[in-house]
Structures are given as C-alpha cells and as structure tokens.
What does this fold into?
Amino acid sequence: MARYQVGIRTETRILDATRDLLAEGGLEAATLKAICNRAGVQAGSFYNLFASKEQAIMRVARDAIRAVDPDPGRAGTDTIADLVEAYVRFVTDQPELARIYLQIAVSGSNDDSVARRFLRHHVRRVERFADALQRADASMTPSGATQMAEVLLGALDGLAFRWVLDQSFDFAGHAKAAADQCS
Amino acid sequence: MARYQVGIRTETRILDATRDLLAEGGLEAATLKAICNRAGVQAGSFYNLFASKEQAIMRVARDAIRAVDPDPGRAGTDTIADLVEAYVRFVTDQPELARIYLQIAVSGSNDDSVARRFLRHHVRRVERFADALQRADASMTPSGATQMAEVLLGALDGLAFRWVLDQSFDFAGHAKAAADQCS
DNA sequence: TCCAAAATGGAGTGTATACTCAAATTGTCG
DNA sequence: CGACAATTTGAGTATACACTCCATTTTGGA
It folds into this structure.
C-alpha cells in the first residue's frame, strides 16, 4: 500500500503543470491533454493519481488561496499596513494566481466546496484585519472593527480585480489610500 | 437586404432566451442547444442572425453592464448615496447577471474587447462617483476625489463579490458603511 | 531474487459542443 | 399573382473534451 517514490514525483509534475497552465491561460487552458503533455505523462497515469481533473485543479487552487494569507506566525502583532502590504504583494507578485483565485471563486462550480473554502479564508482574514484595527484604535467596538475590516478587504479585492483587468492601474497606491481611510 | 419583421422577432426571442438562461444557470447553462430550444428555433436560424454564440451572449451582457449605471439623465445631480443604492440594487436584483459580469470580466477571454468594455464603464462610473464626492465636499481636489471614488467602487465590487459567494452577507449594509467612510 | 503492488502507455469510448449547408418555406413588393 | 430575397429547417460535420481499460513495465520490500 505504501506509495512508490516515482508516483509521488509524477504527482508533483502534474500539479506543477496544472499550476503553470492555469497561470498562463486560466481555467480554459488547463485541459487534461495540456496538463498531461506538459507533465510528460499519459492520461492513464493522471487518473492513477487523481480521481478527476477538477481534483488536480482544486489542489492548486487551495494552495493559491492559502498564499493570500500573510505570515500566520505574526498573527496578533501585525498592523493594518503590514496586512495590506502582504495582500498587495501577493496580487502583484503572482497576478495569474490572483486571476485564478477570482476565476475559480466566481465560476459557479457544481461543487460549492470551493466557494466555502474561499469564504473560510476570507472570514479568517477579516478577523485578522479587525484585530489589527482594534489594536490601533482601542475605542473601536468589535462589531465596528469587523464591519470596517469587511469593507477594507472588500476594497482590496475590488481594487485587485480592477488591476487584473488593467495592470496599468496603481493598485498599491489605491490600496494604501483605502487603508488610510480606516484611521 | 431589408429585414423582415419575423426575423427581428426571432432575434429578440433568441436574446430573451439567452438572458433567461444566463440568469438561471450562468454561462454554463447557456449552450447553443438550450438557447435554441428555449427560443423555439433551430440552430440554422440562430446562425442566420448571429455570427456566433458569444455574440448573442455579449449583447445580453452589454445590456446588463449598462444596467449597473444609474439613470444617466440624473448625472451631475445624484448623491453618493444614490449611486451606491443603484449599484446595490443591480447586484441584489440580478445576482446571476452580477456573477456573469464578474465571470466574463475575469475569464481572460480570447477577445479582450470584453475587458475593455468593462473598463470603459468602470471609468465612467468612477467619474460619476468622483463628481458626486466633490459636490458633497468642495474642498476635495479632483485627483483626491477620483482616488476616493476608485476605492469606494473597488469596495463595492469586492463586497458584491463576497455577496455572490455568500448571499447571507449583508451587502447593502456594508456598502452603506463604505459610502459613509467617504464623508 | 522474487513478486505483488504501483505506475505507465496509449489506443479507445462516449458525449457534448459550436457551427454548416442545401433545400424548403415564408414574407414583401411591384 | 409572381418573383425574389429573407428566413427557417434539421440533419449533418468537425472537434474537443474528460475519462476508461488493460496489457505491460517498474518499483521496492521481504
């Protein structure tokens, strides 16, 4: 029952290929054939390791979602500026991953586990932002901080969306402006 | 070359069918077969009127995008609250269209005219918002108003995105909170 | 060294899709 | 009416796709 090394290597090759294809051409480019070609593998091998194409894509997407979160080790100590900067860096460093993030979230997958996963991460981020807001301004009520965090994160998402459509947009500058409005 | 009435009627039937299908099941539900079935038309008739399926969808999407804009007749007189309310109403009244709006914009379509169209409308809306902001606070510089309008619209887009994923989210309330932060 | 489990190749299946075309039908106008 | 263009039909084409099957090869532990 123990897995062979070669199988594990093949798995990572497939995941790498999937990630690359998603980054280059979005969901539509990530066909089974394209994935197998790029991974240097035949369909049979793919299905020896993954139950479906979607499963491979979800593995990649899950990692992308995780990457949006700033360093979890610093939770409870980071400022709003830190958190915003981490978000901006993720989006600008990995624009295609950011697009995939949006694309999958909005694609109305038959399997809504995707949406739920996104939401879980979103909620966690909101908490982190709200925490930072409250540390900066002790007079803020918890629910007020949460609401403001939702708005700020919404703004970041929306500005990222806009930047994905038009990369000449000054995403970082507007993100900072959004953060400044919360002080 | 003059068009017969019957052809015009068929065209609207096809567009109605397309709109309904998009509203009910998103892009994935709007297959050629489904559109033709619902319109009571054969594939040949469809292609007598439209060059491609995408063309029909774009016609519907274009109208939907237009609908996001509040009454153009009141441009120059409406308040931020008016504009935000119009946005909220569009999203909550037509959730599927809002999803398609996001879906098409982010899909990295082979034809980037879609993205450009979205951007054009976005820029127009930003101007409208910036105008309202400046009317409310004359001390605001034009570029400051534009930046704030971008942030506010970004927040609305982001909050709408969140609402599309989780319709129990209080979109209207947070949208109002975002608007209030701009006063 | 042996062998069962794991991995692989690759042809093949089934299905859904957008789209075409020649022929038949229908609408308009002189 | 009669001619002719606009429209419609519906069977048909081409293609892309995810996925299966299974004989063969490779792996790694006993």
The CA atoms of residues 50 and 56 of chain B lie 7 Å apart. Chain B has a mean pLDDT of 89. Chain B touches chain A at residues 26-28, 99, 102-103, 105-108, 115, 118-119, 122, 147-148, 150-159, 161-162, 164-166, 173-174, 177-178, 181-182 (CB under 8 Å).
